[in-house]
Amino acid sequence: MGQLLALRRDPLGTLMQAQSFGPVVPLQLEPFDVVAIFDAGVAHHVLHDPDAYTKGTRVQRVMRTLLGNGLLTAQGAEWRARRRLAQPAFRKPRLAAYTQIMHDVSRQFADRWRATTDPLDLNREMMRLALQIASRCLFDDQLEGQAEDLDQAMGRILASFQRMVTQPVARPEAIPFGPAATYRRAISEIDAIVADLVARRRARGSDGDDLLHLWLHSDLDDEAIRDEVVTMLLAAHETTANALTWAWLHLLRYPDALRAIRDEVAELGGPEGVLELSPRAGALPWTDAVVAETLRLYPPAWATGRSCAAAGELHPEGHSSVPVRQGTVLLMCFYAMHRSPRAWTHPEGFDPGRWLRAPSSGGVKGLTLPELPYVPFGTGQRKCIGSHFATLEARIALATLASSVDLALEPAQQISTAPAITLRPDGPVWARVSDPQTHHQMAR
Question: In the chain, N or C: fewer CB atoms in 10 Å?
Answer without folding.
Answer: C
